[in-house]
Amino acid sequence: MDRLKAGKDKEMKHIIFELAEYAAKKEDSNLAEIVQSMVSVLTDIKNYPESWHDIGYELLKKYPENTWGYVNFELWDYENPDLF
After folding, report:
1. Is the pTM of the predicted complex or chain greater than 0.85?
2. Residues of the chain with pLDDT under 50
3. Which letter does DSSP use for residue 21 in this model?
C-alpha cells in the first residue's frame, strides 16, 4: 500500500510540473494561478508527502527571477527552501 501511495504522490507532482510547463509555454495566466494555488496548498499541508515538500523550490529552479513563470507562479515565496 505504501508503494501505491508513493506512486500517487509522484503523479501529483508530475501533474503540477506538466501544468506549469503548459501555462508558461502558452503564457496562460489563469492556469498559472491554478498552479500557484495548488503549490501553495500542498506546501501548507502539515502531513504532506515528502515529495511535495520542494515543489515550489523546484519550480523556482526552472523559472528563475524575471521570467514569466517566476512572476505568474509567485515563486518568490520559495526562494529560501529552509523555510519549508
Report:
1. no
2. 1, 4
3. H
